[in-house]
Amino acid sequence: MKQFPKFATLLALGALTAQWAFAADPAAPPAPQPGHSTSVPLVADAPSAYTVQKGDTLWGISSKFLSQPWYWPEVLYLNPEIQNPHRIYPGDTLRLVYDAATGKPQIRVERGDSVRLEPQMRSTPLNEAIQPIPFEIVAAFMSKPSVVTEEEAKSLPYIVAFDGRKVVAGAGDIAYARGLEGVDPGNRFSVVHVGERLKDPDDGHFLGYLGLYTGAARLDRAAGPGKNDFAKLMMTASARETLSGDRLVRDRMEVPLDFVPHAPAQTVNGSVIAVVGGTSVIGQYQVIVLNRGKSQGLEAGNVVSIWQAGELVKDRGPGGASSTTQFSEPFKPTVKLPSERAGEAMVFKTYERMSYALVMSAVDQMHVGDTIRNP
């Protein structure tokens, strides 16, 4: 039977759901000698091989090989026969080998049975390629409005009321709206609640409003020219309760999650200005808003570290609280404790001066106001 060559490419990037396949590679260069130093941060128990499973993510796979997943360029091994080395698929095998000359680790990708030697297109659909981060968590932010500008807040069509005198609406309810004159029936809209104002804490610049996706609606009847004629919509999906006054935004396609984790090319120094969902404490897989965007060099796939802001405390001197008197307490100096690294987040959607990021790892609690830096 005809043997297929090993196709080498990238990866540095495991698995949310994973099965491990360990195998020796007789053709691989030898591992570095004891004491050999390398700049690539491999984990102590990195596997010699891993078979990609459906449901894996690039970040997850990378974290099984690397202690710092954004080091993927350091282990990238390109094969010119593969057009897009950043795409890996269920069934591909990732092998950890070492360069014979430098001793540096490399991760090579051996394609699954669906790849043939002859020049053909891969039979696996592109949408089956594994994603860099859990798609289901950020899907609403990639395809739905998530920032509303001040002008949009004033000019977008909006819901006036619901049938049956309902105060809130969900899937299956009828809504009446203004601002849809001349729009053809059948068009679909995202329903967005205008949330908190977003301002850059550094200079007070107004960035927009947090747009909270509440559901989807289909236009069944357009509004007529009369002042009291309303457009009629059917709510087709519900993510949270929809209220009168919520805005309607025409559905549109967005850029898919076609990126890999990497460090920013420029120095990043910003802040977490909001957390989607309104919670006060930020944890893994929560979406956060950053006050840095395209104009500061951020792009989708950039990884940033989050630093917990140090608290303000009284320096009571030797003896601590036991040496404090009611008279002297107001005169004790207030000092700020140092910031501590609390986790990492990956940017997945950028605007001119702000970005959305998904918290990928958390070693401590994070809050709005914490700083972001290069990883």
Order of helices and strands: EEHEEHEHEEEEEEEEEEEEEEEE
Envelope shape = flat
The main pleated sheet reads as: 7 strands, antiparallel
Number of E strands? 21
Mean pLDDT over the residues = 76
Q: Specify the structural class.
A: mainly beta
Question: What is the domain tally?
Answer: 3
The low-pLDDT segments are 1-38, 78-82, 114-126
Strand content: 25-35%
Q: Termini distance? A: 48 Å
Number of helices: 3
Question: Which bin fits the share of residues in helices?
Answer: under 10%
Radius of gyration: 26 Å
Describe this structure in words.
This protein is mainly β. The chain folds into 3 domains: 1-130, no CATH class; 141-250, no CATH class; 269-373, Thrombin, subunit H (Beta Barrel), CATH 2.40.10. 6% of the residues lie in helices and 31% in strands. The chain has helices spanning 58-65, 135-143, 150-155, and strands at residues 19-20, 49-51, 93-98, 105-110, 147-148, 158-162, 168-169, 174-178, 188-199, 206-221, 231-238, 242-243, 247-250, 269-275, 287-290, 303-308, 312-314, 334-336, 340-350, 355-362, 371-373. Strands 5, 6, 8, 9, 10, 11 and 13 form a 7-stranded antiparallel β-sheet that branches. It has a 6-stranded antiparallel beta barrel with strand order 14-15-20-19-16-21. The chain is flat and about 75 Å long.
